[in-house]
Amino acid sequence: MFQKAYIPYKGYWSSPFSRWQMSFQSANAIELGAATARKFLELRGYTPDIFDGCVLGSTVAQPKWFHMTPWFCAMMGNDKISGPMISQACATSATCIYTAAAGVETGMYKTVLAAAADRTSNSPHLAWANPLGSSGEVISENWMTDNFTDPYAGHLMVETAEFVATDFGGITKEESDTMAIRRYEQYAMSLENDREFQKGYMIPVEVNLSRKKTIIVDADEGVRPNTAEGLAPLKPTVEGGCITYGAQTHPADANAGVIVTTQERAAELSKDKGVTIQLLSYGSARAKPARMAAAVTPAAEMALNNADVEVKDLSAVKTHNPFTINDIVMGSLMKIPDDIFNNYGSSLIFGHPQGPTGARCTIELIEELVKLGGGYGLFAGCAAGDTAAALVVKVS
To answer: Do residues 220 and 256 lie in contact, with contact meaning Cβ atoms separated by under 8 Å?
Structure first.
């Protein structure tokens, strides 16, 4: 349980999430992330020298990725700091925030930027040296699509969700579709009043489409509505299963960041001095092979136990839910009330750029808790390798 880690109110951002092969497809994620960070600092009235450390997450290699964190910090405007680069699949953001909080807790840092940037579009096609192969032929790998299959468990991620659905008593396509519709209705909440909720944290991004054309992307791209009429005719992606393309997330491109600092510094940096945001705990777990969706519940329970918080104490819950099965199972096992579960959106609907996903979910969790007047919040999400990570925050 953390005692000293705080987040300033409005000390965080997310870019829009752009469906892969849309407006962000050609932009280097690290460069775009640094540009968004600079704009965030300017809009909030901060200067880059407020940071004495940075934790940067990314899961898809970009040109110059080897120099990621120091390069990002320099482009952001502070070439005197650096820090670790973290790549932990879909748990990357949660672990970045946890690492930043640990640095503050131990006194190593006073004010840390925990950021993440990824581009799933146009991901690398890699050639690995293989001098012992026939005629020295290389080993090749498509970074994104080849890694949709777990090399240890040997199954596609969607298959692991289907296994959990079967383990849980046989979740039906109708149940899955109903959850997908519900999650889209909740995302629509964030679009009300001219996207008032999203505009509370989302930073518009400038993108060069060509030498002569630059556009501003200020809202999510590629979100598709879920309706009963639209989902009913769709076939499950795995024969005999329950999950259709409408009941799973889509790859995306984006960046996000969260400032983690001391209580005193958070008060100084907060937009509203009356709001206090404390990071309480972190949890992680690994399920048995090919059961990725099952790892979310034990990770969430660990984070809650570490924070000495129970489900009945929670005011809001957010998840990285690449498949409807994640929330169906977690909600049932933990008895999470529907009215606090993924209001204003989740990655099932707005997409999944991997590294930044958990940060956006945590930011939306904080924003919702502020709207509610405070309370405890839980973020949890699964990750590749049948793992999961979770965070608990308190807003007062």
So the answer is: no
Q: Which domains does the chain have, with CATH numbers?
A: 12-122+207-220+250-269 (3.40.47.10), 157-201+275-395 (3.40.47.10)
Token pair for residue 90? 């879909």
Helix segments in the chain, DSSP class H: 29-44, 68-76, 92-105, 157-167, 173-189, 192-199, 228-231, 263-269, 296-307, 324-334, 347-350, 357-372
pLDDT tens digits for range 262-306:
999 999 999 999 999 999 999 999 999 999 999 999 999 999 999
Which tokens sit at 44? 């909030």
Strands (E), 120-243: 125-128, 139-142, 205-208, 214-217
pTM over 0.85: yes
Report the DSSP beta bridge partners of residue 127: 140
Q: What is d(CA 156, CA 238) in angstroms, rounded to the nearest whole number? A: 10
* Tokens 């990621």 sit on residue: 68
Two structure tokens written together for 210: 């060509």
Q: What are phi and psi of 248, to 5 degrees?
A: -140, 160
What are the structure tokens assigned to 198, written together?
A: 């999203």
